[in-house]
Design goal:
heterodimer; A: alpha/beta; 6 domains; 7-stranded mixed sheet; 6-stranded mixed barrel; 35 helices; B: mainly alpha; Cytochrome Bc1 Complex, Chain D, domain 2; 3 strands
C-alpha cells in the first residue's frame, strides 16, 4: 500500500506561503553559509572576519574542552553468556584439529580459539602426513576475517536469500535435465572422498552433468605422466628423509612444487649427525634451475640452466643412468657436472632421488624411470598424493564448449577462472552464453562478478569436510566458529539440489562410518583430526618406452628469452591476495614485499638496459620491462636477481588481482595472462621502458663481505676432519697481550649474573635445517598482534616484523671463498677496492637464510641506554619491554647491534591511513587477547612469547608440579610453527631439555660474538655438503 | 524486622502451649517444605497460604504424612491436586507430628503487621533533623555577618575619632607597614627561595592530582540489575567462586552467565530477607530485580519453563585494568591462595559493588614486596625456593624476590 500521509514538524511548515519553508526545502540552512570566505582567493581570505588569532582561540578552546571532556573515563560493558557452553572458559584457549584444503594448500592443522573465535593456526603434529603449515596456511586465519567477504548469496549483483537461490537452481537443473542440455561442475581439486561421492551421486541424479577439475597452477603434465607410467591419475609422494642424493631439475620442492610440504623430510637429512662413526653424514642436494628458488638457495650445488637446458640435462641424466645415448647440446662444463650428478645418483642407489618441475610429461616420465631404475626409497609411488587432480585438456574443452553453447549451465566452486585462466576473456564470454552460472566464492571475485548466481561460501573454519591428501591418510575439517555470514557450503547445496534431506556433516559421518572407519571411533578421529587406514595400494609400471621421451626432450630448442612462471611463498596462486599479512611478507629470496616483478640475470639486464637503483632514503626502485608473449603484453617492474640463469626470466603468479580486493592490496601484475597452455615455460620478447617503479624491499642485494661473525659456514669435509676451532672460530681479544676469547669473564666489563636458578630460556636455530620458508614470520605476526604498515612504510624501512629471515649472498661462488678473499687483503688501497668488489653478489652465489629476532642478550646494549628503564632483563633470560613505560627515544634501537627493535611510527590500529585488518571490526577479531596492541610512539620487539612461557609456568604451578620435559618447546610461536625443526626453544637450566643438548653441539655460535652481548639465541654453523674444502 | 521479631518472641513466650508456635512453624517450613512450596506463590507445589481454610485439618494431617497413599485410595481432593500439579506426588512426611503441622499452618496463615508507621516516622525524623541543622547554619552565618558589619562600623568610628582628635599616626604607620613588603621584595634571596618553594609545591600538588587520573577507586556504577553482593555473599554465604568459577582456571574471574543464576533462582522467585527501607531496598524492589533476571534469561514463571527468548545483561565493568597489564586471577587465587577480599574489599558487605582498591601499579608492587610466596605443597616451587632462599638468606621468599617485580611478568 502506498503511503500518502504527510508528516510535518511544525505548523509553519504547513503554510506553503512561508518563505522560510520554501528556503528550507531547497537548502539545508536558512542563512547562507560563508563558504566563499574559505574557498575563494587569497584577498578574500585576508579580509575575512575570522583571523589567525581567532583561529588560535578556537583551537585553544576546543583543545581544552576536549581535554576536560576526556577526563571522564569510558563506561565499559561486560556481557556474559546467557548460557555459557561447558567447553568455553573465558581466557582459556581451546584447540580444534582440522584441515585446510583450498585447492592449492593442503595441511592438517590445529586451530586455537579464544572465547569461540579462531585466532591462530598451529601444526597438527599428531597427523602423520601433511602436518606442516606453510606461511599461507598460517595466514589463512586472517582471511576468514576479511572485510571483503561476501555476506550472502547474490543474483546478478542483487542480494537474495538462499531459498530463492536454491529454488531457482533446482528449477534450472530440472529443466536442463529434461532438455538433456549438458551442465558442467568446475571445481578446485577436492582430495575429499565425501565430496567426490556427492558429486558422483549428483551426476547420477542429473546425468547431463560433467565434473571438470581445474588447478590454477597446473600439475596436469605430471598427472598425465603418472597415468601413462602407472595407470592411475595421481601424483607419487616423496620422502626426502630417506635420500642421500637429491637431484631436482627445476622443481622448487621446498616451495610449492606439487602442493609443497616436503621440507620436514628434507630437513631431517640435512643436519649433519654422527651415526657412531667419526664421520657425520648429510644428504647432498643438487639443484638445476633457472630462477633462484628456495630449493636452489638450500642446495649444496646449484647449476643455472635455462628451461630448454633443463630439459636436455634431465634427458642426459637419464641417458647416463640408463646407458641410453642421449644427444643434446649443453655447454661442456655443465655437461661434465651433469655427468657427475648422474654418477652420484648411481652411487647412491636406492638412496638417490630425482624430481622435476618441468611442465612436460616426458620430463616426469624420465624421473619416474630413473627413480625406478635406482629403486629409490624416497619415491613413494604406492602412497599417492591426491592434492592435485586438475586436467588441462578438459578445462580447455570446457571453455570451447561454453563458447559453442554445448554446455548450457555451469557450477563453479573453489576456482576463479576469470582471473587465473590465460584465456580468461574466452571463458567470460562463454559464461555469458550459459543459461545459468553459479559461482561458490568467498569474495566477489573476477568470476563471481561474471556469474548470474553467486553463492557465498564459508571459510574452512566454518565448514565441515574430509580429505585424503595422501592415499589412505584421512583427515577431517570441522567448524571452529559459527558462520560469520549467511553462507552455505558447496556440498550442502549439492545435497539440497539433488533433493537430499541430510546435511553434509551427516553425509561425511555416514560415509566415514561405512567406508573408512569401520570400527574406529568417529569422535576420536574428530578429536585427532586424522586417521590412517591399514589398506595398502600397489602400483605397477605399465610403460617402458622412456627412451623416446628422452629423445624428445633432448631435442628441444630455445628461441629468445625464456620465462619461468612460478608461485611465491607469500601469495601462492593468489587466493589470499587480500590478506595483508601475506602481502607484507617479504619474499624469502628477493626480500621484496607488496609486489611481483620480473627476475632477470645481471648480464641480460645490462644488455636490455634494465636497472635497479636505490633512491635517497635507501629504498629500491627499478625501471619497467615490456614483455610480450603469444599476443599478451605486460608492463612489469624488474629485479636483478643473482643466480638467475642467463637467458631466462621469472615472474610470479598470484598478483594483479583487482576484484573483491581492498585498494591497498591491488598490487603487481597478473602473470596468469602468460600461462598459455598451462605451461610454466614461455618464450617471450622483452624491451625496457623508461618509467620508474617503487619497490618495498626490506633487504638489499648486497653480500656479507666475508663477515664470519654473522654467518658461519663450512663444508662437510672440513666439519668432519678439522677441529671446531678452525671452522667455528671464537673471536679473541687481547688482554695483557694474551689472546682471550670474548666469552671469557675476564674481558667482560659487566658482572655476570647467576642464571642457574629457575628457568633460563634459550632458542636454538639450526642454519642447516632452516629452509627460509617463512612460516615462523607469519606465526609470529598472528601470535603477537604485529601490525601491517603498508608498502610506503616498508620502503622507509619501517616494517614491524618481530622476526625476519635475512638472506645473504656470497660474492664469490661460496662463502668460504669470500672469507679467503677478505683475509688476503693487504693495505688500505687493496681493502677499498676488494671490499667494493665484494659487495656485489656473484652470478651464481651461495645463499644462506638466517632467522633473526631479538637475541635476548644477557648483556643487552639496549637496556643500558634506555633513559626510563622501559627495557630490562628478566631472570628467565628474556629481555623485557614495558610498552607503557616507553617514551620513544629510540636509543635502544640505535644501540642494538642486531637491528631487531621496531618502532611504532604511527598508530596502526583504528587509523584510516593504515586500512588493514586492525582498522575494521572484523579484522580485529584475529588479535590475540593475551598480547597488548601497541600504540604510537613506543618501541616493540620479540618477547620470546613471554605470554606463552608464563602460561606454561602457571599451568605447572596450578597443578603443583614441575614443568614437564619438552613443555616449553612449542611456546614460542616461531619454534612451534617450524616444521623443519630448525628452531627449538626451551629451558637450558633443565639439563635434559632439547635446547640444553643442542647447546652442547660443536656447531653452536652466537650472532656477532665479538660484541660480547651474550645472546640467549644461538645458531648452528651451516654445513654444506660440498667436496671443495 | 525487629518489630516482627519482637512479635514472634512475644508469641513464643506468652501464648499458651496449645496455641500453634509460629516461630517453630517457620523453621519447620524452611526445613521441610520450602524446596517445593512458597507462602504466596506456586512453585513445584501450590502456595500454602490459606490451605488451612481450604482443606479440613484432618485431611491435611493425613495428606502431609503420606499423600501417595491418599491418591492411591482415590480420595477425590487428593487426586485433583495430583492431576493439577503434573502428576508429581508430594513427598511423605511421617516424621511430622500433628502439632508440627499445626505450627506450619499457623506460620502459613500468619501475616506480619506492616511496619508502615515506622517508615513514616523514620523519614520525618531524618528530615526534621536535617532541617534543624540548616536553621542553625543559617543563624550562625547571620550572626557572623552581623559581627563583621559591627567590626567594620567600629573601625570606622574609631578612625573618625582619631581624625577628629587630630592625632596623626599615619606617617609612622606608613613607615612601618611599607617596609615589610618592600624589604621582602628587596631581599632577592628570599624571593628566589619562595618562588622555588611555590613552584615545587605546585608541581607536587599537580603531580599528585595527575596521579589520580584514571584511578577509579570507589567507582560504583549503576548496574542494569541491582545485584546485591551483600545478600548473596554476605547473608547467604555463597562462595565467591561458585559464581566466579573461572577465577581459579583463567586470567578472568568471569562474570557468571545467567544459567548460573538460575541454578538457585529457578526456586527463588522472590526476596524474603531483610529490607533497607531507608534506601528503598524493599522486598518488592528486590523481587522486581529477580524478575529482570527472568526476563533476560527467558524464564516463564507461570509455566516454569524457558521460553528461549533471551536478552543478555549488559553489566557495567567496574575493575578496568589497562590493556597493557596482564593480570591473572588463576595465579593469585589458585596458586597464591589470596583471598578475593584482599583486592576487592569487603564484597560481602557491599549492597552495590564498587572498586575497593586503587588498582595502581604502586599498589600491586607494594603487595608483591610484602607478601610471601605460598610454596607449601607446590612441587613447582620446591627447587627454586630452596636455591633462592639460600641466595637471599631468608626463610620465606617474598613475591618480589621470586621475580614478581620484573616488568615482563605483567607487561607484554
Amino acid at each position: 500500500m502506498e503511503n500518502h500521509k504527510k508528516y510535518w514538524k511544525s505548523e509553519i511548515e504547513l503554510s506553503s506561503k512561508n518563505e522560510m519553508v520554501e528556503d528550507l526545502k531547497n537548502k539545508e540552512f536558512i542563512n547562507k553559509l560563508p563558504s566563499d570566505i574559505f574557498l575563494s582567493n587569497k584577498e578574500n581570505l585576508k579580509s575575512t572576519n575570522t583571523n589567525r588569532r581567532d583561529f588560535l582561540k578556537y583551537l585553544g578552546f576546543s583543545t581544552a574542552a576536549a581535554t576536560l571532556a576526556s577526563c571522564e573515563g569510558p563506561v565499559n560493558r561486560s556481557i556474559p553468556y546467557v548460557v555459557q557452553p561447558d567447553r568455553i572458559v573465558p581466557g582459556i584457549a581451546n584447540f580444534y584439529a582440522t584441515s585446510i584444503a583450498d585447492g592449492f594448500d593442503f595441511a592438517n592443522v590445529l586451530v586455537k580459539t579464544r572465547e569461540g573465535r579462531p585466532i591462530k593456526i598451529e601444526n597438527n603434529t599428531k597427523a602423520k602426513v601433511k602436518s606442516s603449515a606453510n606461511a599461507r596456511v598460517h595466514a589463512s586465519v586472517l582471511s576468514m576475517y576479511d572485510s571483503q567477504r561476501l555476506k550472502g548469496p547474490m543474483h546478478e549483483g542483487k542480494e537474495i536469500n538462499w531459498n530463492e537461490l536454491n529454488k531457482n537452481i533446482i528449477d534450472e537443473l530440472e529443466l536442463m535435465k529434461t532438455n538433456d542440455s549438458p551442465v558442467a561442475i568446475l571445481t578446485q581439486t577436492f582430495a575429499s572422498p565425501s565430496t567426490l561421492k556427492i558429486i558422483n551421486e549428483f551426476k547420477r541424479k542429473y546425468p547431463n552433468v560433467r565434473h571438470v577439475v581445474y588447478d590454477a597452477i597446473s600439475e596436469s603434465k605430471a598427472l598425465d605422466a603418472f597415468e601413462i607410467a602407472y595407470g592411475t591419475r595421481a601424483l607419487p609422494s616423496y620422502d626426502f628423509s630417506k635420500a642421500d642424493v637429491i637431484v631436482s631439475v627445476g622443481a622448487d620442492f621446498l616451495g610449492d612444487w606439487q602442493g609443497g610440504g616436503h621440507d620436514t623430510g628434507y630437513a631431517k637429512g640435512r643436519v649433519p649427525l654422527n651415526d657412531g662413526s667419526n664421520k657425520a653424514k648429510m644428504s647432498k642436494h643438487f639443484q638445476l634451475e633457472s630462477n633462484m628458488s628456495i630449493s636452489g638457495a638450500n642446495a649444496d650445488k646449484r647449476i643455472m640452466l635455462t628451461p630448454t637446458q633443463q630439459k636436455i640435462a634431465l634427458a642426459k641424466i637419464y641417458g647416463y643412468i640408463s646407458s641410453y645415448n642421449v644427444v643434446g647440446e649443453l655447454p661442456e662444463k655443465i655437461d661434465l657436472s651433469i655427468k657427475k650428478i648422474a654418477e652420484s645418483l648411481i652411487n647412491a642407489g636406492n638412496k638417490g632421488i630425482i624430481i622435476t618441475g618441468i611442465d612436460d610429461s616426458d620430463a616426469h616420465l624420465l624421473t619416474f624411470a630413473i627413480n625406478d631404475l635406482l629403486g629409490s626409497l624416497s619415491f613413494r609411488k604406492n602412497e599417492l598424493s591426491l592434492i592435485r587432480s586438475g586436467n588441462d585438456k578438459e578445462v580447455l574443452k570446457l571453455i570451447k564448449d561454453l563458447n559453442s553453447e554445448e554446455v548450457k549451465g555451469i557450477i563453479m566452486c573453489g576456482v576463479n577462472p576469470a582471473y587465473t585462466l590465460p584465456n580468461s576473456n574466452e571463458f567470460i564470454s562463454g559464461i555469458k552464453k550459459t543459461k545459468f552460472s553459479v559461482c561458490f566464492s568467498m569474495k566477489n571475485d573476477e568470476t563471481a562478478v561474471e556469474s548470474k548466481w553467486v553463492a557465498a561460501a564459508p571459510h574452512y573454519f566454518e565448514s565441515w569436510g574430509d580429505n585424503e591428501m595422501i592415499s589412505e591418510n584421512f583427515s577431517l575439517t570441522q567448524p571452529t566458529i559459527r558462520p560469520l555470514f549467511d553462507t552455505m557450503q558447496f556440498q550442502d547445496c549439492l545435497l539440497k539440489w539433488m533433493g537430499s534431506e541430510s546435511s553434509y556433516y551427516d553425509f561425511i559421518k555416514d560415509n566415514w562410518n561405512k567406508n573408512i572407519l569401520y570400527n574406529s571411533s568417529w569422535n576420536q578421529v574428530l578429536h585427532d583430526g586424522f586417521f590412517r587406514s591399514n589398506k595398502k595400494t600397489q602400483i605397477k609400471n605399465i610403460y617402458s618406452d622412456y627412451n623416446s621421451s628422452a629423445s624428445r626432450l633432448s631435442s628441444s630448442k630455445s628461441v629468445g628469452f625464456e620465462m619461468v612462471l612460478y608461485s611465491k611463498t607469500g601469495l601462492g596462486d593468489g587466493q589470499q591476495a587480500n590478506n595483508p599479512w601475506l602481502q607484507e611478507f617479504p619474499d624469502p629470496i628477493t626480500r621484496v614485499s607488496w609486489d611481483n616483478y620480473l627476475t632477470i640475470s645481471k648480464q641480460d639486464a645490462k644488455q636490455l638496459g634494465l636497472k635497479n637503483y636505490n633512491v635517497s632514503n635507501g629504498a629500491l626502485d627499478s625501471n619497467y620491462a615490456k614483455i610480450k608473449s603469444n599476443g599478451v603484453t605486460l608492463k612489469v617492474p624488474v629485479i636483478i636477481q643473482p643466480g638467475q640463469a642467463k637467458g631466462s626470466m621469472g615472474l610470479a603468479f598470484g598478483y594483479g588481482k583487482t576484484s573483491g580486493m581492498k585498494k591497498e592490496m591491488q598490487v603487481g601484475v597478473n602473470a596468469f595472462k602468460l600461462y598459455t597452455n598451462f605451461n610454466s615455460f614461455q618464450n617471450i620478447q622483452i624491451e625496457s621502458i623508461d618509467d620508474n617503479h617503487e619497490f618495498a624491499c626490506v633487504q638489499l642485494h648486497n653480500t656479507l663481505m666475508g663477515r664470519g661473525d654473522i654467518i658461519k659456514e663450512t663444508s662437510l669435509e672440513v666439519f668432519n676432519t678439522k677441529k671446531s676451532s678452525e671452522w667455528n672460530y671464537m673471536p679473541k681479544v687481547s688482554l695483557n697481550h694474551i689472546e682471550t676469547p670474548v666469552t671469557s669473564p675476564d674481558v667482560d666489563i659487566w658482572d655476570e649474573f647467576d642464571r642457574s636458578i629457575g628457568h633460563h630460556f634459550n632458542l636454538s636455530i639450526d642454519l642447516n635445517a632452516c629452509t627460509g620458508c617463512g612460516a615462523c614470520v607469519i606465526a609470529c605476526h598472528a601470535e603477537n598482534n604485529v601490525p601491517v604498515v603498508g608498502k610506503q612504510e616498508v620502503r622507509k624501512s619501517r616494517d614491524m616484523h618481530w622476526l625476519r629471515i635475512d638472506r645473504y649472498y656470497s660474492s664469490k661462488d661460496s662463502f668460504k671463498e669470500d672469507n679467503d678473499k677478505k683475509d688476503a687483503i693487504s693495505g688500505i688501497n687493496d681493502s677499498l677496492s676488494v671490499f667494493g668488489e665484494m659487495e656485489e653478489p656473484s652470478a651464481n652465489p651461495q645463499v644462506v637464510f638466517q632467522p633473526v629476532m631479538c637475541q635476548h642478550c644477557n648483556h643487552a646494549p639496549c637496556e643500558t641506554v634506555c633513559p626510563v628503564a622501559a627495557t630490562s632483563h628478566g631472570r628467565q633470560g628474556q629481555n623485557h619491554m614495558a610498552y607503557n613505560r616507553c617514551i620513544g627515544t629510540r636509543y635502544c634501537a640505535n644501540n642494538c647491534p642486531y637491528k631487531v627493535r621496531r618502532f611504532n611510527w604511527f598508530l596502526y590500529n583504528n587509523n584510516d591511513e593504515f586500512d588493514f585488518n586492525m582498522n575494521d571490526d572484523l579484522g580485529k577479531m584475529v588479535l590475540n587477547p593475551d598480547v597488548v596492541v601497541r600504540s604510537r610512539g613506543v618501541m616493540e620487539k620479540c618477547s620470546f612469547c613471554i605470554q606463552s612461557t608464563q602460561a606454561v609456568i602457571l599451568k605447572a604451578k596450578r597443578e603443583g608440579r614441575t614443568v614437564k620435559k619438552g613443555e616449553f618447546n612449542d611456546t614460542c610461536a616461531c619454534s612451534a610453527a617450524c616444521s623443519t625443526g630448525a628452531m627449538k626453544f626451551g629451558d637450558i637450566n633443565d639439563k635434559e631439555s632439547q635446547v640444553s643438548v643442542l647447546k652442547e653441539s660443536e656447531r653452536v655460535y652466537h650472532l656477532l660474538e665479538s660484541v660480547g652481548t651474550k645472546p640467549n639465541v644461538f645458531y648452528h654453523v651451516k654445513v654444506r655438503n660440498t667436496n671443495e674444502t | 524486622m525487629t518489630i516482627f521479631a519482637c512479635i514472634l518472641v512475644l508469641f513464643s513466650f506468652n501464648i499458651s502451649a496449645q496455641e500453634p508456635d509460629i516461630a517453630k512453624g517457620k523453621s519447620l517450613f524452611n526445613a521441610n517444605c520450602a524446596s517445593c512450596h512458597k507462602l504466596n506463590k506456586k512453585l513445584i507445589g501450590p502456595a500454602i497460604r490459606g490451605v488451612s481454610s481450604k482443606y479440613e485439618k484432618d485431611w491435611l494431617y493425613s495428606w502431609i504424612k503420606n499423600s501417595a497413599a491418599m491418591i492411591k485410595s482415590g480420595d477425590e481432593q487428593a487426586v485433583a491436586i495430583y492431576e493439577e500439579y503434573n502428576k508429581v506426588a508430594m513427598n511423605a512426611f511421617p516424621q511430622l507430628s500433628n502439632e508440627d503441622i499445626d505450627n506450619i499452618l499457623a506460620y502459613s496463615d500468619y501475616i506480619p503487621p506492616k511496619p508502615v508507621a515506622a517508615t513514616i516516622s523514620s523519614v520525618s525524623e531524618s528530615t526534621s533533623s536535617s532541617s534543624t541543622n540548616d536553621i542553625i547554619l543559617v543563624l550562625l552565618s547571620f550572626v557572623l555577618i552581623i559581627l563583621t558589619i559591627l567590626l567594620f562600623i567600629i573601625n570606622k568610628t574609631l578612625k573618625n575619632l582619631v581624625l577628629q582628635n587630630g592625632l596623626v599616626a599615619d606617617e609612622k604607620k606608613n613607615k612601618k607597614a611599607m617596609p615589610i613588603v618592600k624589604a621582602f621584595l628587596q631581599n632577592q634571596f628570599l624571593v628566589i627561595i619562595s618562588v622555588i618553594f611555590l613552584l615545587l609545591s605546585s608541581a607536587y600538588f599537580s603531580f599528585q592530582y595527575m596521579l589520580q587520573i584514571g584511578v577509579d577507586q570507589g567507582y560504583m556504577p549503576i548496574q542494569p540489575i541491582h545485584y546485591s553482593h551483600k545478600i548473596h555473599a554476605g547473608d547467604n554465604q555463597i562462595e565467591c567462586q561458585y559464581c566466579h568459577s573461572s577465577a581459579k582456571k583463567s586470567k578472568h574471574s568471569g562474570i557468571p552467565s545467567l544459567n548460573v543464576c538460575m541454578n538457585c533462582h529457578e526456586n527463588i522467585a522472590e526476596y524474603n530477607g531483610e529490607e533497607d527501607l531507608e534506601k528503598g531496598y524493599t522486598k518488592d524492589f528486590y523481587t522486581n530485580e529477580i524478575k529482570k533476571l527472568y526476563k533476560a534469561v527467558g524464564w516463564d514463571e507461570n509455566s516454569q519453563t524457558y521460553t528461549g527468548d533471551t536478552e543478555p545483561v549488559k553489566w557495567v565493568r567496574i575493575h578496568n585494568l589497562p590493556d597493557f597489564v596482564y593480570f591473572s586471577h588463576a595465579q593469585h587465587v589458585a596458586v597464591a591462595g589470596v583471598d578475593c577480599q584482599k583486592c576487592h574489599g569487603p564484597v560481602e558487605e557491599m549492597e552495590v559493588l564498587y572498586q575497593h582498591s586503587p588498582l595502581t601499579m604502586g599498589w600491586c608492587i607494594n603487595c608483591h614486596r610484602e607478601t610471601n610466596v605460598k610454596v607449601k605443597d607446590n612441587e613447582y616451587y620446591t627447587k627454586i625456593h630452596e636455591e633462592l632462599s639460600k641466595k637471599y638468606g631468608v626463610e620465606e621468599l617474598t613475591v618480589a624476590q621470586m621475580g614478581g617485580l620484573e616488568c615482563g611478568k605483567c607487561h607484554y
